[in-house]
TrEMBL record, chains A, B:
Origin species: Novosphingobium olei
Annotated keywords: Amino-acid biosynthesis, Cytoplasm, Histidine biosynthesis, Hydrolase, Magnesium, Metal-binding, Zinc
A single BP term in Gene Ontology: L-histidine biosynthetic process
Domain Phosphoribosyl-AMP cyclohydrolase: 85-158
Positions annotated to bind Zn(2+): 133, 149, 156
SUPFAM superfamilies: HisI-like
Cofactor(s) for this UniProt protein: Zn(2+); Mg(2+)
Name this protein carries in UniProt: Phosphoribosyl-AMP cyclohydrolase
EC code(s) of this entry: 3.5.4.19
One GO MF term attached to the UniProt entry: zinc ion binding
Family recorded in the similarity comment: Belongs to the PRA-CH family.
Signal peptide: none
Classification via Pfam families: PRA-CH
């Protein structure tokens, strides 16, 4: 385990800050000794902490939405690992997905929440949600109830670019 | 094979249009008989053709760039199928990737082309490029030369969301 020595004098507010951060991020604050401070490096209140470090290494889910309030979401077949589809989620879609266990997205063209498969029945049961380093993309590990693509292909990624620049259908996609 | 009957009268320009479309999309135009027209359903000049059909079912690579000139690109380990990272590509990045065989992206923060691994050496050798149904997303099937994430994790998706909403590190990611 790595430790960082912080020579800052003991201040009550800092101790309280340590407790609050500890509570938020899920790290126990019992190892923080201010004055002569010994802090776990992974803890977001280390002397070198920053929002970037917290976002990349922390235990707090803090999605980085774009100017339209969206993150990119990639659905992957949990069993086969196949890339199925790509869509976008806002805070509402993330909440609804976590609440129901079925993938919900935000339709940019229709400007509304939609559940994948709401009309076709080809829903995506969410097994696990992963987040990337800077928290602007999500990986939904899913169990698809049918073809993931609206074209009825198992995956939306059913063509590859050939050497001559044309597209060719992939047999198993 | 499915055929579509087109009752439109024979016009020389239509014949020429058929030939041009056939040449662009890679379908042979020899089956187009105008006047009493017999056309392969898959051909983009069918009576029911549209840009959507051409984009979704055609053999022409016509990426649908957003207002910033970008498509989303997802890098997947060709051997393991693991989702590695997500970035963006403009026309220049796509061209450079196809030309060199190594993944290039467009950095939105730096506003410039970059080759993944240009400083770390952790390049992504591109085995295959796939495109999704509406051609606004690409799947790069790659062979990574090292950790795909700048944090030195093998994949950028190294944390999952737990039931209590906190993030937990995934052992094998």
């Amino acid at each position: 385990m790595l430790f960082i020595h912080d020579p800052r004098p003991r201040r009550k507010s800092h101790v309280r800050g340590a407790w609050i951060f500890g509570a938020i991020c899920g790290y126990r604050a019992t190892n923080h000794h201010c004055g002569e401070v010994t802090i776990r490096k992974a803890c977001p209140i280390s002397a070198h902490s920053s929002e970037t470090e917290l976002r990349e290494q922390g235990a707090v889910f803090m999605p980085r939405f774009d100017s339209a309030g969206l993150v990119t979401a990639v659905a992957v077949d949990h069993a086969s690992g196949a890339l199925l589809m790509l869509a976008h989620m806002d805070a509402e879609a993330i909440a609804k997905t976590r609440q129901t266990g079925f993938a919900h997205f935000h339709s940019r063209s229709r400007g509304r929440l939609w559940m994948k498969g709401e009309s076709s029945g080809h829903v995506l049961k969410v097994i696990e949600i992963r987040v990337d380093c800077d928290q602007d993309a999500l990986e939904l590990r899913v169990e698809p109830a049918g073809p993931a693509c609206h074209t009825l292909a198992p995956s939306c990624f059913y063509r590859r670019i050939e050497d001559d620049g044309s597209l060719a259908r992939i047999e198993d996609a």
